[in-house]
Amino acid sequence: AAQDWLSTLPLEDRIEAASSTISNLSYSSPRLAADLLDRMTGQAAGNEDQLRQINQQASNIASNWSNHAPKEAAEWAAGITSESDQANAYRNIAANWTQFDPPATAGWIDTLPPGTPRDKATERLVEQIKQQDPSAAFDWANSMNDDNDRYSSIRNVVNQWKRSNPEAAREAVESAAITPDQQK
Q: Where are the strands (E) in the chain, listed by range?
């Protein structure tokens, strides 16, 4: 019914109303919200402001969808064309998925190409596992593509790890893909 109603509105009003509709649908029917977002993205093509307004809903969809079906949310988010919107969606998916299945989350992240979206998902995995498995968290942090994100994540893991095993943390830092100054 919402989709039928949206089609009766002028394009500018339709985009604004669709953004609100997508947000509300993402809680109860994330697949429908994703379909509507995809359709509205096509209708807003060529208008950067309208595209930005619609695409901002992608991370909400991913977050809500990943609460109960993270694999499906991740498959959908792979089609998000904006790198920053995809990175936000991946971050939200990883945050939810790692709460109940860190190995599956790690398996998914391992399939992602290097870049900002993968790094944002990796940050969430690292945060979730650093207390239980600091060695694995360190390896994931060290795999990040962005130098600043990698350093920040490594530092967070090492600060946690050095409390339980300072020698292992020190050895890991010496092998990290960071500068000598950062190692100090």
A: none
